[in-house]
Amino acid sequence: DTEKSAIFIIFGGSGDLAHRKLYPSLFRLYKTGLLKDHFAVIGTARRPWSDDYFRGTVITSLEESFDDDKKIMEEFAKHFFYQSHDVNDSEHYIALKNLAAKLDDQFEAGHNRVYYMAIAPRFFGTVAEHLNSEGLKTKDGYNRLVIEKPFGRDLDSACELNGNISKAFPEDDIYRIDHYLGKEMIQDIPNIRANNPKFEAALNNKYVSNIQVTLAESLGVEDRGGYYETAGVLRDMVQNHIMQIIGSIASDDPEAKDAGVIHKNKCDLFASLKNLTPEEVDKNFVRGQYDTDELGDEKAYRQEDKVAEDSQIETFTAGKVEFNSKRWSGVPFYVRSGKRMPNKASRIDIVFNEKVSELGIKPNTVLTLLIERTNDHSILINGIDYKESGQDFIKFPEEPEFTKACEAYESLIIDILSGNRVHFTLWDELRSTWKYIDSIRERWDSQKADFPNYISGTMGPDSAEMLLERDGNSWIWD
Ligand code: NAD
């Protein structure tokens, strides 16, 4: 790839996301040469830091993940500048504009701007509006707005946020991050489907018994109790990441290359989500909140810092999602996510039925796509590496792309710099998924939950097992 030029303006440049994810990813791009001479990074936050102090924090964060020569880190850090900034102060945007213009001249950055919102979500709209009204957007380069999660907390707030940012930026310049879309396996699913016609022919309600998506964490909320109390796992993981994972496996036409077509197929899939009545919510979704562990050593959720003693926030959910589409009607998509589960795991299990033998796939085969690779396995067939499974419906002409091991944020930043929006979420997708999630949330908010209801280090409440048993199914990962 050739060198890219841009001025990055990172709102929340002193924060955790910026230091833990963004700066290390930019550094990797620097080492590959994608970023070289023609870029600069302006970090902004309220604190009055000097450039030197800011560069020091950047280097410290790099030292945690890299053992490169400090000289390279220092060279890289010379591209970093700090501007103290309050999101509500118009004057500060003028200062930012002038600094960006100056650095653009200095580094010959082609008038390109990447505005990255690594800041509390309540500021996203304000910042976007000011960028527009104070004239930060350049005339001859590009101006791309990057929005972190969460994108709203329900359909109404997401609509309001979207209204605010779309007054300032056209949809084509908005990059809404869902970092699961930056993960290699998720990006590779369309290729796997497109390159394996037998597998693709089996991906529908004639041959699939059910599909299971699990995003399990072994940790609790740690120091993010304050944020978690406003969210819960349904908003934090299901509305965005799990839905997008389903989008990658279940939307039509994996061969499509055009971003517009790919997004349309995903929008169509989400538009066919079978929305739930309150009674269906009770039947199809279960919720849980972790208690201490078997030994009583770990904190229960309600004992965590900044968490209410009687918190009704769920740290676990399992549910049955269905679609009203020709391809998928009748196939349950069982989804599950939780904290304090036995292991960290991110996986998709596709359970085929008996009829699949018509296509030359052994009846009742289970295909597992590991989103987070373990012991170098990425794809399992009936629990063993696909290459040793004795079945040939998944093959690769050459080593699959998912061995390239690139960090999600790195890959997403490359896309932003290249103007490739395939791996970002569109407003239409969010509208459908929020509508779906809201019906569950509203039902739950109207009923008191009997929390805590699962022991830390377990697979969640028993109701999660019963959800599948009732349909004659069971979780593949248990
Ligand atoms: P953080 O609290 O560590 O950082 C927030 C930043 O905003 C700081 O730099 C702070 O100085 C700045 N800030 C706060 N008030 C300001 C104001 N009035 N004017 C200007 N700057 C102000 O938060 P974070 O964890 O880095 O998260 C940032 C965003 O990224 C949030 O939207 C969060 O939801 C999202 N996110 C974070 C993570 C993560 O791993 N940390 C993961 C996914 C998404």
Supply the CATH class of the largest domain. Alpha Beta
Q: If strands are numbered along the chain, what order do they take across the biggest sheet?
A: 8-10-11-7-12-13-14-15
- Helical fraction: 25-40%
Structural class: alpha/beta
Radius of gyration: 23 Å
Number of helices: 15
Label the overall shape: globular
Largest sheet: 8 strands, mixed
CATH-defined superfamily of the largest domain: Dihydrodipicolinate Reductase, domain 2
Give the low-pLDDT segments.
none
The count of β-strands is 16
**Whole-number average pLDDT?**
95
CATH architecture grouping of the largest domain: 2-Layer Sandwich
Q: What amount of the residues lies in strands?
A: 15-25%
Here the CATH topology of the largest domain equals Dihydrodipicolinate Reductase, domain 2
* Total discrete domains: 2
Molecules bound to protein: nicotinamide-adenine-dinucleotide
Ends: how far apart? 42 Å
